[in-house]
Every structure is written in structure tokens, then in C-alpha cells.
């Protein structure tokens, strides 16, 4: 941790006051501002910490909106934190499950805990890193019934000062968002996460009524399948504006009975007063469909949302659209009609060509296309290389989709369907 990353100076009243008095962060003026503050007598460590927090607050706005302006961060804690609208959905699931006291086992800077406590549910937030726990304490300061404990989450339930599950007023739900990075690298093996996934799954046996475990979007479906280590749990994938942000394993009252897998698509939309809001476009639930039909390219192409693909629900979107796959192994759906779905991006197909740079270039030139968005599934061609190699100069835009049907490589030239 560098001196600037040390949050201690802003935990003191003079450091906090300096941070709160800073103008909105501007990287172009931050150095000069720092020099002026030091010349005016502020301690260098305090100035460094306040400017770092100011920069992190600005960086956090995308995840946390205006709340970021009243919070403290560690750089790592911000990177790992849940986006607030997604955290609000976790909290709402606990509310619907009837939870009254949630333990957050590895709370980081406290975003999930803030969302749960914001619903009026009591939270015990446990964090083992002292600086992160201090930051979480500041971030939860206005929320009644939220307490941060410095300690090892894996001591739950007996070794932590939290009300025992199964007792009156006891902890009735547990949330775990394990640390999934070490030394800046993502840890693929869930047993390397902290806490490890197998330990977190064991929370189902501690007497709580609901458990949620945030996991990587790439978790295996076999986990929740009958006979799998998380049989009886449901896995819920979520995307925000097309980015798959998480898969959460839910158990007990917080799980969807009988649902192994689901996909929720969230979108940012303009809200009141110029602010943005994140809204649910839809949730798709696994109803055990077989594989989607496969057939020829129609007039329309549909690219399923990443959450749908990760959840293995492409056949469900194909059925909803009345469509078919171009290839049984590739997640592109085609239809003859201009149908749309919240679970896919749709395009009108103008041409289907065998793959070949010269042929594609000639076609795009005849159409006056100068700018292309390149998408690919099942093609080795690098989109950036293709864009450069095309050397186009027309006025129109087009979406070029590189894919294949069996062994045949094809290119679809499309326009987004509005
Ligand atoms: C992914 S972050 C949590 C982010 C949090 N959900 C949020 O939205 O702000 C995981 C946190 O768990 C903490 N952690 C990992 N293992 C722990 C353990 N055994 N006991 C307590 N905290 C732990 C890490 O220090 C890290 O801050």
C-alpha cells in the first residue's frame, strides 16, 4: 500500500474535513491542487490521502452513483465492489425471503451490506482486512442496525460476535462475496477464492434460512445439477448493459423453488432529473427445454445476451422468438420475422456471404459502407485486423458478423434492428 492509499488520514476529523471541502476531482488540476494545499499548511500524507479518496469517489460514480460522494474506498475494494443497483437486487431477494438479520461474510468496502441495511434488515458485516473494515464502517455509518466486525468470516457462526442462527433474533441469512483475485490475477478455481466456494456452500448447514454466494459468471452448470455439490441451489446470472457481472448461487428461502438456472438482463435508462437508472428488462428461467432447432439463415439475426448464454438458456430465447440456430454449437439465432426480445440484440440481415476478405470488401464498397462493427462467434478472424484490412471509405455503417455453419465460414452483413 502506498502512502496515498493509506486511508488513516481521512479517518481523522481534519482529513475528513479536507476531503469534504475538495472541488470535484479533475485529473488535470489535481497535482496543482495538492501543491497549493501543502503550501497552505496541510500535512502531505493528509493531502495525498484526501486526493486519492477524491479520485476514487469520481471513479466509483459509475458503480455507486451519487452515494460515492459520501463514501470512502480502497482501490481494490472499489474494484471488487458490487454495483449498487445489483446489490439492491441481492438485498431485495433477502427481503422477499423474509430475512431479518443477514451476516455479510467478507464485506469489502460494504456495498452489499449497505443495500441490505438500506432495506431495514440488520447486517453484521465481517471483514478481515483492517483498512477495508475501517472503510466499510464509514460507509455504513448512517445505516441503523449495521455493524462491521474485523475478523475471519470463516469463524462463522461460533467464532464471531454475531447472533447465533436458530436462536430468537438470530442470524437468519448469510451473504458471501468471496475475494476472487490474488496479486491482480483472477482466480479461476473456486477453491482458491476466499472464502472458498466449498466452505460457502456449507453455510446451508449452519441453521440460517437463506444463503447467497456471489460467484464468477463462468461457474459450471454441473454445480447446481442434481448430484452436484450445489444441488438444491439455484444459479442466477445477471448482466448490466450486456456485461455479465455475476452469477449468484441462492439457497433456502432466497432460492427460486425448482429453478436451476436463470438470467436477468438489466439496462441503464435515463431517469428523472437527468440521472441514470438501472432497470430490469427481463428474467428468463430455465424450464428444461431441449436443444434449439437448427436451420437456414433468415432475414433477421439475434445475438443472445451474455447472461442468457452463460445460463445456458439460448434455446429458451430461440423458442420465445420462434427462431432457430445457424449452427448447433453457436449462440446466434435467426428468424424470418422482425421479432425482438429483451434477451437478445436483433439485426436485419442484408447479405450472407461465404467468408473471404476480397468478396466482403467488394460487397461493402458497393453498398457505400465506410464504418463497420465486427462481431464474431466461431470465427478465428480478429475483428480489429478485419476492420483495418477492409480499408473502407463510404458513408454508411454496417454490422459484419463472422460465424460458421458447420465447417462453412460465413459473413452476415446486418443493420441493428431498432
Ligand atoms: C469481493 S470483496 C466483497 C465486496 C462487497 N460485496 C462489496 O460489494 O463491497 C471480498 C472481501 O472479502 C474479504 N475476505 C476474504 N476472505 C475473508 C475472510 N476469510 N474473512 C473476512 N473477510 C474476508 C476480502 O478482504 C475482501 O474485502
TrEMBL record:
Keywords: Methyltransferase, Transferase. The keyword Translocase does not apply. One of its GO terms (molecular function) is methyltransferase activity. Residues 344-416 form the THUMP-like domain. Pfam families: Thump_like. GO terms for biological process: methylation. SUPFAM superfamilies: S-adenosyl-L-methionine-dependent methyltransferases. This is SAM-dependent methyltransferase. The lineage of its organism: Bacteria, Bacillati, Actinomycetota, Actinomycetes, Micrococcales.
Amino acid at each position: 500500500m502506498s502512502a496515498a492509499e493509506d486511508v488513516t488520514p481521512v479517518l481523522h476529523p481534519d482529513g475528513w474535513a479536507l476531503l469534504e471541502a475538495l472541488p470535484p476531482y479533475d485529473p488535470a488540476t489535481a497535482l496543482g491542487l495538492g501543491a497549493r494545499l501543502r503550501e497552505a499548511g496541510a500535512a502531505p500524507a493528509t493531502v495525498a490521502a484526501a486526493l486519492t479518496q477524491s479520485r476514487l469517489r469520481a471513479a466509483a460514480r459509475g458503480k455507486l452513483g451519487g452515494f460515492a460522494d459520501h463514501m470512502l474506498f480502497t482501490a481494490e475494494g472499489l474494484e471488487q465492489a458490487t454495483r449498487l443497483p445489483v446489490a439492491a437486487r441481492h438485498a431485495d431477494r433477502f427481503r422477499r425471503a423474509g430475512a431479518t438479520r443477514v451476516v455479510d461474510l467478507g464485506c469489502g468496502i460494504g456495498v452489499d451490506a449497505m443495500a441490505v441495511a438500506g432495506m431495514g434488515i440488520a447486517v453484521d458485516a465481517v471483514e478481515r482486512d483492517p483498512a477495508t473494515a475501517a472503510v466499510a464502517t464509514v460507509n455504513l455509518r448512517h445505516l441503523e442496525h449495521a455493524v462491521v466486525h474485523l475478523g475471519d468470516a470463516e469463524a462463522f457462526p461460533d467464532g464471531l460476535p454475531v447472533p447465533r442462527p436458530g436462536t430468537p433474533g438470530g442470524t437468519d441469512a448469510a451473504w458471501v462475496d468471496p475475494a476472487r483475485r490474488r496479486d491482480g490475477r483472477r482466480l479461476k478455481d473456486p477453491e482458491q477464492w476466499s472464502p472458498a466456494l466449498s466452505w460457502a456452500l456449507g453455510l446451508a448447514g449452519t441453521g440460517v434460512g437463506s444463503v447467497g454466494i456471489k460467484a464468477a459468471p463462468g461457474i459450471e452448470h454441473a454445480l447446481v445439477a442434481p448430484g452436484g455439490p450445489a444441488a438444491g441451489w439455484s444459479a442466477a446470472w445477471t448482466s448490466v448493459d450486456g456485461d455479465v457481472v455475476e452469477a449468484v448461487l441462492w439457497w433456502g428461502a432466497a432460492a427460486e423453488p425448482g429453478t436451476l438456472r436463470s438470467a436477468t438482463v438489466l439496462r441503464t435508462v435515463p431517469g428523472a432529473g437527468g440521472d441514470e437508472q438501472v432497470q430490469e428488462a427481463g428474467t428468463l428461467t430455465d424450464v428444461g427445454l431441449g436443444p434449439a432447432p437448427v436451420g437456414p439463415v433468415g432475414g433477421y439475426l439475434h445475438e443472445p445476451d451474455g447472461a442468457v448464454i452463460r445460463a445456458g438458456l439460448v434455446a429458451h430465447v430461440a423458442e420465445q422468438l420462434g427462431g432457430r440456430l445457424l449452427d448447433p454449437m453457436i449462440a446466434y439465432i435467426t428468424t424470418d420475422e422482425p421479432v425482438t426480445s429483451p434477451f437478445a440484440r436483433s439485426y436485419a440481415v442484408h447479405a450472407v456471404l461465404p467468408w473471404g476478405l476480397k468478396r466482403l470488401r467488394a460487397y461493402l464498397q458497393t453498398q457505400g459502407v465506410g464504418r463497420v462493427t465486427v462481431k464474431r462467434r466461431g470465427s478465428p478472424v480478429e475483428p480489429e485486423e478485419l476492420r483495418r484490412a477492409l480499408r473502407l471509405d463510404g458513408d454508411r455503417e454496417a454490422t459484419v458478423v463472422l460465424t460458421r455453419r458447420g465447417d462453412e465460414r460465413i459473413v452476415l452483413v446486418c443493420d441493428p434492428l431498432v
